[in-house]
Amino acid sequence: MPKFRPIFLLALAVGILFTLSACTSSADDPAGAAAAYWQALADKDSAQISSLTCADFEAEAQNTFDSFSSVAVELNDLSCKVNSQEGDTATVYCSGTFVASYGTENLTIDLADHSYSVVKEGGDWRMCGAK
């Protein structure tokens, strides 16, 4: 058996994991757009936040991003699903928690406390705020 086989298998496994993680945060559907928004917020990815939000929500999303940029954050058990969809507008429900750590205090946001408005803009689904 060649010596390079374990390295090849490891590289293949890593490639598959990256592919699967990209699929779970896709903005190709309303639920994927909402999940990708929360993941970008947790990853502190300002460019992704801008690309995942509708024009009407972009300033508010950037303010939210700024408020969490200097604290430790954690996204737990994220799951989003479409509740209703009509044309280019959808309502999405997410579950999971977004936890921001301010020193010794934690702010826990239960994502299930709101439904989320998602719209198709420029051919892509984009987060457009909470209801």
In helices, the fraction of residues equals 25-40%
Distance between the termini: 59 Å
Q: How do the helices and strands follow one another from N- to C-terminus?
A: HHHHEEEEE
β-strand number: 5
- Poorly predicted tracts of residues: 1-25
**H/I helix tally:** 4
> Major sheet: size, sense and barrel closure?
5 strands, antiparallel
What proportion of the residues form beta strands (DSSP E)? 35-45%
Shape type:
globular
Q: Quickly give the structural class.
A: alpha+beta
Calculate Rg over CA atoms: 17 Å
The overall average pLDDT, rounded, is 84
What does this structure look like?
- With 131 residues, the chain is of the alpha+beta class.
- The protein is 40% helix and 37% strand.
- The chain has helices at residues 5-24, 30-43, 46-52, 58-68; strands at residues 72-86, 89-102, 105-110, 115-121, 124-130.
- Strands 1, 2, 3, 4 and 5 form a 5-stranded antiparallel β-sheet that branches.
- Helix 2 (30-43) runs antiparallel to helix 3 (46-52).
- The longest helix is centred in the N-terminal third of the chain and has 20 residues, at 5-24.
- The protein is globular.
- The model is unreliable at 1-25 (pLDDT under 50).
What distinguishing features does this structure have?
131 residues, alpha+beta, five-stranded antiparallel sheet, 4 helices, 5 strands, disordered N terminus
